Amino acid sequence: MMRHPFEPGRLISGLTALTLGTAYGLDALGIGRAPGPWLFLALPAGLLLSGITAALWTTLRRRTRPADGADTP
Question: Which of 6, 33, 66, 71 sits a CA distance of 20 to 30 A from 41?
């Protein structure tokens, strides 16, 4: 089985979505209270952080990749 490359941008966006979904779910069940403005601002902040991370990760991978293409199957 081929391994997939690690993508930290997707990890951050997935954790952001999971956290927001959990917060809204707990608020709907009455277990916790989710402050609306914070959750409303957390989504764009998480997506922005995810985009910055993906751009940095791509830049770093391009700079550290071997020139002969040895990592391609």
Answer: 6
Separation between Cα atoms, residue 48 and residue 46, nearest integer Å: 5
Distance CA 33, CA 55 (A): 34
Residue 62: how many CB atoms within 10 A of its CB? Answer: 8
Can you read off the two tokens belonging to residue 62? 């391009």
pLDDT digits (tens, 9 = 90+) for 16-36: 999 999 998 998 999 988 888
Spatial separation of the C-alpha atoms in residues 55 and 46, rounded to whole Å: 14
**Separation of CA 40 from chain center:** 17
For the chain, which residues make up each domain, given as ranges? Answer: 8-60
Residue with token string 């966006």: 13
The amino acid at 18:
L
